Amino acid sequence: MPPPFPPRLGAAMRTPCVVQGQRKLLLCSVWLWVSVVAQTSPPAPTGQSQPGSKLQFRLAGYPRKHNEGRIEVFYNHEWGTICDDDFTLANAQVLCRHLGFVTATGWTHSAKYGKGVGRIWLDNVNCGGSEKSILDCKSRGWGNSDCTHEEDAGVVCRDERIPGFVDSNVIEVRAGEGVSSPAPVGPPEQRWELLAESCLTDQGVPWSWCTHPAAALTPSLPPGRLYAERQQLHYRLHSVACTGNEVHLSLCPFEFYKGNTTGACKGGMPAVVSCVPGPLFATGNAQKKKRQQQQQGQRIRLKGGAKPGEGRVEVLRKNEWGTVCDDRWSLLTASVVCRELGFGSAKEALTGARMGQGMGPIHLNEVQCTGSEKSLWSCPYKNITEEDCKHSEDAGIRCNIPYMGYETTIRLSGGRSRFEGRVEVELGAGSNGTPKWGLICGEGWGTLEATVACRQLGLGFANHGLQETWYWDASNVTEMGLSGVKCSGHEMSLSQCQNHGTNVNCKRTGTRFAAGVICSETASDLLLHAPLVQETAYIEDRPLHMLYCAAEENCLASSSRKANWPYGHRRLLRFSSQIHNNGRADFRPKAGRHSWVWHECHGHYHSMDIFTHYDILTPNGTKVAEGHKASFCLEDTECQEGMQRHFACANFGEQGVSVGCWDTYRHDIDCQWVDITDVQPGSYIFQVGGGRLGGGAVAGSRQRQPVPCHCPGLASLAGVRGAAAPQS
């Protein structure tokens, strides 16, 4: 018999993992169940639900994303809706938790996602927000409503799953429609029917089914073999004819069996699909090396995403990385990008720079793929002009990926919340058969390694990578199990990073010197306004007697120590800088006000030792001069329209940069320069990067990444041509 509530086909990744030798296969032991409604009128109610029966919830309607929609509840063997009378965000929070999301971010009224059918089960729902079940909330009672389906309520949930939640949502199709849309269905034990391939026989699996419907069913994985098995069950669908480009099975053409279905699909069998991870998720050193070679030759990449398979789309053109404008950006185009990168089809096509604003040029505009292309470059597009797009319109994607269980081999312990703690990794099975856990040596542990750990844990961005930890020893794990961990920042798990293997070598042992992380769901995204640098840059010969405070804060080149103070001068490249926060979280210094350092000479506090690095490089990358800017006043100088300032330095106030605001350091402020006294005239690269000692998590990979910045009129520098956004 079929399972009472089959897995959602669009998320076929949530499957058991079977290990065969060294090869890990994900066997999607899923019958292709499709819900079908043969009639449009609502079924008559049937008795009261059995004592102890469990309510079921789902999102429906169109158009919508996977985390929003009309809220429907399965009660008394019948699906129904909830009226929007007196509906509140607290109600939505309780319902989103029923659906497996951590909380709600909004709710909708007046059937925004379309009118439902059948019963309106609840009306005048009144929750406080902390209830464990909708049953604990006040209402008019089940089935007691004076509403119509024009008042169906919807919810918008935060796109973050409750850890360990098993998704039971399913693909639904409406009878009689060629391209189906979500529709209510009857109770699972009565309404779930088999999807059949009418020409499936004992002699083999049809090529059309083996290559195309499987691709639509498992958008996160490459098409695999189909297996057939006889069962005496009812069939409802046949002749499913996917092209392989669909992002969802419900978008494929199909036909319904009508009337008595017991004799349908004679000589055929129910269609079953088995899935294996694609090359991007394969294990082994050979596969890892092949994967790295493929990635090095790619002309497309994702940036700014916290999870695998999501991010801002960036393309390489004329040896320069740039972004893609979101005009006409669609799910089909996003799916081409996902598949080109080795993922499945797209889950979402993101617009409006939801994965952060990029830097440099915007290469492509109005990209329109059909879904069959192997590369984004094969799709029709328009070249960009300055008037067409801004980086606030950068396109992004979220791809379907297979469930690999990466989070089961890592955990955090001792932290104040689930987002922080000492990192522990699974080392295999212990003597009693239970998993054996070990610590990671903190030597060399940094932001990149913490980024991979937070990604593997599914906890978002890395706020801090800790080489020493003072967390409570909650798990009683004291053995160092891993050392020499070195990541590039793009890996999906720490096992894909370089390490010492079984030859653990850690100079400082003990739990205090184990690696730790502090993760963050959201991140700031700091972006340097490069045009301001080139507009304000100039050279000044400043007398030494005016540089005593700057020397105290190490803002001059080391050769200044040998100068004949207070006589002589230093040659300084001065400029203004403007740092914008285009991310989804405020940027704040790591240190609280109690630990800020007072500098008597300048008469101010430093909230961060180093906020920004300034470097002068030769064309081949050799550093010939450097400077830095300590953050003595990190505040919201100005904000975008509609955004409010939160940080101000006056009266020992809190420091930081709010979302949608920027902090400006003027060219006439001490240390807002690079000491170029010892630099010979020539052509150089001017590079600006963020301090690694600073505060909150930052999205993207912008550490010291040059972008074009032409600064004319520099007497001693023939071409200062680089600037980059800071990153903590």
What is the 3D shape? Answer: globular
**DSSP strand tally:** 43
Using only C-alpha atoms, the radius of gyration works out to 29 Å
Overall mean pLDDT stands at: 75
Gap from first CA to last CA: 55 Å
Number of helices: 9
What fraction, in percent, of the residue positions are helical?
under 10%
Protein model, in words:
The protein has about 725 residues and is mainly beta. Helix content is about 10%, strand content about 30%. Strands 3, 4, 11, 12, 13, 14, 15 and 16 form an 8-stranded mixed sheet that branches. Strand 5 and strand 6 form a beta hairpin. The two termini are about 55 Å apart. About 45% of the residues are buried. The model is unreliable at about 1-50, about 170-195, about 195-230 and about 690-728 (pLDDT under 50).
Main features:
728 residues, mainly beta, eight-stranded mixed β-sheet, seven-stranded mixed β-sheet, 29% strand, disordered C terminus
Quick gist of this model?
The protein is mainly beta. Helix content is 9%, strand content 29%.
Secondary structure layout:
Blueprint: E1 17-20, E2 23-26, E3 30-31, E4 33-37, E5 56-60, E6 68-75, E7 78-82, H1 89-98, E8 104-108, E9 119-122, E10 154-157, E11 172-174, H2 188-191, E12 192-197, H3 207-211, H4 213-217, E13 226-228, E14 235-238, E15 255-256, E16 269-273, H5 285-296, E17 300-303, E18 310-317, E19 320-324, H6 331-340, E20 346-350, E21 362-365, E22 382-383, E23 396-399, E24 410-413, E25 420-429, E26 435-440, H7 447-457, E27 461-466, E28 480-482, E29 516-520, E30 526-528, H8 530-536, E31 538-543, H9 548-552, E32 569-574, E33 577-581, E34 597-599, E35 604-606, E36 608-617, E37 623-631, E38 638-639, E39 661-665, E40 673-675, E41 682-690, E42 707-711, E43 717-723
Parallel strand pairs: 4-11, 7-9, 12-14, 19-21, 26-28, 41-43
Antiparallel strand pairs: 1-2, 3-16, 4-12, 5-6, 6-7, 6-10, 8-10, 12-16, 13-16, 14-15, 17-18, 18-19, 18-23, 20-23, 21-22, 24-25, 25-26, 25-29, 27-29, 30-33, 31-32, 32-40, 33-39, 34-35, 36-37, 36-41, 38-39, 42-43
